[in-house]
Amino acid sequence: MPFSEGTPRTAEHRLSVNPFYGPANPLGDMAEAPPTHRLPDPPMAPATAHQLVRDELMLDGNARLNLATFVTTWMEPEAGVLMAECRDKNMIDKDEYPRTAELERRCVAMLADLWNAPDPATAVGCSTTGSSEACMLAGMALKRRWAKRNADRYPGARPNLVMGVNVQVCWEKFCNFWEVEARLVPMEGERFHLDPQAAAELCDENTIGVVGILGSTFDGSYEPIADLCAALDALQERTGLDVPVHVDGASGAMVAPFLDEDLVWDFRLPRVASINTSGHKYGLVYPGVGWALWRDAEALPEELVFRVNYLGGDMPTFALNFSRPGAQVVAQYYTFLRLGRQGYRAVQQAARDVATELAGRVEALGDFRLLTRGDELPVFAFTTAPDVTAYDVFDVSRRLRESGWLVPAYTFPANREDLSVLRVVCRNGFSADLAELLAQDLERLLPDLRRQPRPLTEDRGAATSFHH
Q1: Whole-prediction pTM value?
Q2: What is the strand order of the sheet 207-213 is part of?
């Protein structure tokens, strides 16, 4: 969420009010235009307030055409009804809303089974407001376990966390907020994510864990979790260092179990201590809900779990947030119940088919080079071909926006700052028909782009539309 820096007093502005908004008397009910940056003095009719807000929101982008976000932008009407019925339930009040709490427990059990926990009945987990909070919780558990093992040296020794430079920004926040050194494996050549051996070489006695990404947001590729665990196994044999792995499966943990069943990345690997996912991404639920699971109680230190005497009941909780609606958890259970394994497999396969077919269409245009093809996450990244000099990816992004498409263009991190790409996220609801329209719009604008004298983007830093 952007940090609001406030509004200067000199920027006082009032909303323009249409007399027709008055529910009864168009003149009497709308005598005064409300201010925008301070509370108005009198109240107004609900229909009027609704229309004023709705008018302003029309200037937002169309969420269904937003190919930058991984977040779910379409659900069935029945799910929307359930969410509306549960939005007033504070799910932290488990004594007051025991059935909502039970649905959360069922979701954790289903995910533990899906991710092959040794004993799904003993796996522990919780819902969160999204993967960012889930990653914070997983990082806290890694740090606390390391601190307990090194009680004779901590807090004198500074803990570190090893991960690829392609990690989502929430991991940088974790390291900053919890005073952990971030050790980043850079990109090299055509490798755009973590290298297992390079990650192992960064580990030492102060490493709390290594983060592996099952689905990089930069290009949609899976990191080799099994190879990472093997490299850390070899490290332990040589040095005695026992470094756990956390799998950030924000997107891939809800794709790989259905489409890549032979891929070993989850709790089948003994070194994997915890996994997170975003229910509101390929979990197919509106934002915001995430999930954090640990392979067993030993992986989650008991002292991190608060037992609160709340409204007369003992309530264990492990979360950064306290009060939040139960609507998203209920929607997650609905979606699990509604789709089952076969339904999820069909939905994710459809998304992958759209991604791979659209990637092929983009490549066939001849102006672009694919970095990925959508055959892991239903996501692909591409850049301009070497002989294209009249325009760049930022020009393409800007021109597509004229047709309503939000396709992010951004520069890669170290050591590939020279590489700028476009990325397309194919979610449920982005159909083959919509993909065809996008391909047609892209092909239609190419002649104009080719006639440019040079790329028109002056400041690539300002032009980038990738901030998550």
Answers
A1: 0.90
A2: 124-128, 290-294, 272-278, 245-248, 207-213, 160-164, 181-185
Confidence check: pLDDT of 467 > 80: no
CA gap 452, 468 in Å, rounded: 30
pLDDT in tens, 130-166: 999 999 999 999 999 999 999 998 888 999 999 999 9
Mean pLDDT of all residues in 57-71: 91
- How distant, in Å, are the alpha carbons of 161, 184, 214, 243, 267 from that of 198? 13, 10, 18, 14, 23
In 113-250 the beta strands, taken as DSSP E runs, fall at: 124-128, 160-164, 181-185, 207-213, 245-248
Residue type, 355: A
249 close to 290: Cβ distance less than 8 angstroms:
no
d(CA 432, CA 438): 10
- Of 409, 405, 401, which is closest to residue 436 (Cα–Cα)? 405
Average pLDDT over residues 391-404: 96
The tens digit of pLDDT for each residue in 281-291 reads 999 999 999 99
Alpha carbon separation from 277 to 129, 166, 290, 367, 376 (Å, rounded): 11, 17, 6, 35, 16
Q: Which residue has the tokens 């020279």?
A: 418
Provide φ and ψ at 274, rounded to 5°: -155, 160
Q: Which two tokens stand for residue 366?
A: 């001849």
Buried-state track 64-86, b at ≥16 Cβ within 10 A, e below 16: ebbbbbbbbbebeeebeebbeeb
Question: Measuring CA to CA, which residue among 277, 272, 266 is closest to residue 125?
Answer: 277
Between CA 212 and CA 272 the distance in angstroms is 10
- The structure tokens listed for 453 are 């004298």
Query: How far apart are the C-alpha atoms of 312 and 95, rounded to whole Å?
Result: 8
Token pair in block for residue 342: 């076969």
